Amino acid sequence: MAQTLVLLATRPRSRYSGCFGTAAMNIYLDYNATTPVDRAVLEAMLPFFANSFGNASSIHSCGQRGRAALDAARDLVANLIGANPSEIVFTSGGTEADNLALFGSANASPQSRKHIIATTIEHHAVLNAAQELERQGIEVTYIPIGSSGVVDPQDIRSALRPETILISVMHANNELGTVQPIEEIGRIAAEAEVPFHCDAVQSAGKLALDVDRLGVDLLSISAHKIYGPKGVGALYVRAGTPLEPQVYGGHHERDRRAGTENVPGIVGFGKAAELAKANLKADAARIEILRDRLDEMLAGTLPSVRVNGDRSSRVGNTTNLTFAGANGEALVIALDLQGIACSTGAACSSGAVEPSHVLLAIGLSPDEARSSLRFSLGRATTDAEIDRALAIIPATVERLRAMSPRALSAVHAK
């Protein structure tokens, strides 16, 4: 850690500003961790920090301006996923939305014996919630995932029991980008009359979402993954789906989530959802071309590099590659010093010593998992940035490999 701090402290000064500060350039390839707030989103939010600051529950005109803005944002978020506005519950983010789905469903079920189904590659917001429910006496089946990173719907069907109260499967995996067969799982859940939750935090704004087509009863999304502010998200709750609130207080969000609404954040979420809907096709097509060039060139020009997960079933902005013989954390730091931001995995796990649970779940060894990087592109990614990244990354990988005899052995063994 001390060596890392020294390296960061000795970055060269540069005219570039923004997230990198003193970096020599600014190539952000970590959009799955978070996105910059769109300028239009920021402009929509600003009045609600000062001039229109009223509490949306107040009956005076200042409060009612907040209420009108809240209702308009709810319409926009609902429109992004094909829902009715009354089915949208605003939360503090994707993690709270996932927790509300799991704990709310478990607490609302009258069954004495309760069973939940999830996969081994879910986000920690689902996995850790499921593990807490296990400690409370609820059984959880974790469906294993093969090397493709895509769950087999028949494994979900086989895991169903009479006491199953919830199925929870993410839409797009945050580390691999692999897209799960949510529609087929939705049909299985409907046949069994079991509520179905989907974490769509990484697919919103990248894939067209329609809750009826997907067949979900609960769906989580987050503003800061679609160029909105941090600290705000939503849970879609299909009308009639049993759900016990987890935060108690006033009658906010139709008694499903108490607490004064974050009006500026929700307004920003609404604007971000509107832009995501409008720009989805154009953004997705352009970004996918750039992503494909990035992973094809890296895997094609460097020895012992492979793309993890099913390349044909991914959201268009994400690639995860193993660079055999190169330590992933060292690579992230070395690339950061050259102005390229990427990740070894989920942002929520940064600082963790253990290898990615997702990469282990698809069959990578701990060493392979620790030698893997995630690159995730976004709305502002340019051809020139990918060109520059492709000029920097291979040389950096080879330099780090050359520094370790063990690394060289790992490469030659491939």
Instruction: Using the 3D structure, state the CATH architecture of the largest domain.
Output: 3-Layer(aba) Sandwich
Shape: globular
Give the total of domains.
2
Q: Could you describe the largest sheet, including whether it forms a barrel? A: 7 strands, mixed
Uncertain parts: 1-17
> How far apart, in Å, are the first and last alpha carbons?
30 Å
User: SSE order, as H and E?
Assistant: HEHHEHEHEHEHEHEEHHEEHEHHEHH
Report strand %: 5-15%
Total helical elements:
15
Structural class, judged by helices and strands? alpha/beta
Summary, kept brief:
The chain is an alpha/beta fold. It has helices at 2-9, 39-45, 61-81, 94-108, 124-135, 153-159, 182-192, 211-214, 252-255, 263-301, 328-337, 357-361, 366-370, 383-402, 405-413; strands spanning 27-28, 88-91, 115-119, 139-143, 164-168, 196-199, 218-222, 233-237, 305-307, 318-323, 340-341, 372-376.
Task: Explain how this protein is built.
It is a single chain. The protein is an alpha/beta fold. It folds into 2 domains: 2-37 and 280-413, Alpha-Beta Complex (Aspartate Aminotransferase, domain 1), CATH 3.90.1150.10; 39-275, 3-Layer(aba) Sandwich (Aspartate Aminotransferase, domain 2), CATH 3.40.640.10. The protein is built from 15 helices and 12 strands. It has helices at 2-9, 39-45, 61-81, 94-108, 124-135, 153-159, 182-192, 211-214, 252-255, 263-301, 328-337, 357-361, 366-370, 383-402, 405-413, and strands at residues 27-28, 88-91, 115-119, 139-143, 164-168, 196-199, 218-222, 233-237, 305-307, 318-323, 340-341, 372-376. The strands form 3 sheets. It has a 7-stranded mixed β-sheet, with helices on both faces. A 3-stranded antiparallel β-sheet has the order 9-10-12. A two-stranded parallel ribbon has the order 1-11. The chain is globular and about 65 Å long. The two termini are 30 Å apart.
